[in-house]
Amino acid sequence: MQARQLPAIRGWNWIIEGFRLFRTNPALLTFLVFGYWLTLVFLNLVPLIGVVIAPLCVPALSVGVMNGCRALERGVDNGFGLLFSGFQKNGRVLLTLGAVYLAGTLAVFAGSALVDGGTLLAIMMAGQQPPDDLIESDQLMLALQVALILMVPLLMAFWFAPLLAAWEDMPAVKALFFSFIACARNWRPFVLYGLGVAFISAILPGIVLGIVGALSAPLLRMVAVAISLPLLFVFVPTLFASFYVSYRDVFVHTAEAADVVDEVA
How is the chain split into domains, by residue range? Predict the structure, then answer.
């Protein structure tokens, strides 16, 4: 298999095609996504070891959701039983990926500690709402910016890695490497994809709420609820489906590569 280099517009198309996939069976995809979240919430509630177990299971659980997306695309009807299917194949490699992701995330926040003395790391580990004066701190904002920059290569390495391990039988290191290279080769569609996600989930709702708040403060809460529900129950499952679409779009098996080479810009 090889990674295709796609034109920038494909990043926006991932969102569109993710929504089309969601429309084929909204109940199934919503069930898988919320099952994914609730499982992680329950794992995090396990005393002492929950904060370690949950990240370890993220790759396998995400594969379960992606298995559901693939079942939707293929018209298979047994999608509701796929939530934990990621543990059934190459589970040890996926747990290894989870461990590497946990270590990488801790390393990112440890790097931010060089800026703020460990404040952001303490907030993330405690899982509590920080005081308002701390939120407005310049040091904390700088630490957040540093953490976001450091997270980019980590996310690039893990974007496709679980699916490469589960579907292509790759070992953990190879899956991380292939994922990073594929994301680097397709930075243009990923930039447009990120802008599209930000526009739909944050910029557009912010503009609408700003206009409504200026016109009628009592109406603001009602409109906020009206916006948040579609974002939660439509856009979030669409976002998960777009992850699957991006994998299907970028990676192609060697036997199929000759058939698609002409459509790659």
Answer: 2-263
